Amino acid sequence: MSPEFVLIGDPVAHSLSPAMHNALYQELGKVKWPFSRWHYSAVRCENAQDAREQINLVRTGRYRGMNITMPWKKLAFDNADFADAAVVAAGGANVLVRDEDLKLCAYNTDGLGAVRAIERVTGKPLADARVLICGTGPTSLAIATASAQAGAAEVTLLSRDEAKALSCVNRMRTSVDPSEAAVLHGRDYSCVEALVPKADVVVDATPRGMAPDDEAIIDTNLLHEGQVVLDTVYGHGETALLAGAGRQGATCMDGLEMLVEQAALSVEIWADAMALPVEVDRDIMRHAALHAIA
Questions:
Q1: Same domain, 89 and 157
Q2: pLDDT tens, position by position, 30-53
Q3: Which of 58, 80, 87, 217 is 20 to 30 A from 72, comparing alpha carbons?
């Protein structure tokens, strides 16, 4: 049976992952035949029971690997036998794989994917940057943790509920070495006028922007030239946040580059579990995604 890999979530119809992964596997298969048999698909899971059934197929070996998107990242974490530090800090997993001991292992590549994407686009490391992140879901926390680990001077989580933001920050501190970030903050949106202009990087890791009439999560008039603004939404056209950020002269990024990076990291995890050395060409995945969007 050919190795099968899958994305679960709701919705998944818009996902570029199948196109990206299958293009990569086809190209890798030209020089390493095992990859030519790999196949990636997306399965919509409308409820937790459907998601659990799909996750169990990784445990049984029917799937050799799985990506997880909203809203099932926490469920994936809860059903794993092992979770790496990034999963614990984020409270959710976006990668599952079965190891040689038949244990279900959970990873989170969202954070590192976002950091690498920002660094690639800006051409400079995230070290010493002040990073402001909207949201307290697993993607937000993964990006916050990875930013801290990359040496950001300050990482602030914004939430409608400051107590929730502070709770998330406290959980992050258990996974981040104190020397890796000078300051970790949790704040609510009443602080945006003071926080946004001072940030070097602003990230919206909420679902805001997936609907055409979604307004920006912050007042984009607070943004300015020299800032980097990342909206993790992709494939839905220009979001109100990025449109406003562009008018203010900021460097704008949608979630495509982050998607490419986290996808490449997923492949590396799965290949390692199968003892297959691999060098993932990000350009192949990026071009496949852009072709699918077009």
A1: no
A2: 999 999 999 999 999 999 999 999
A3: 217
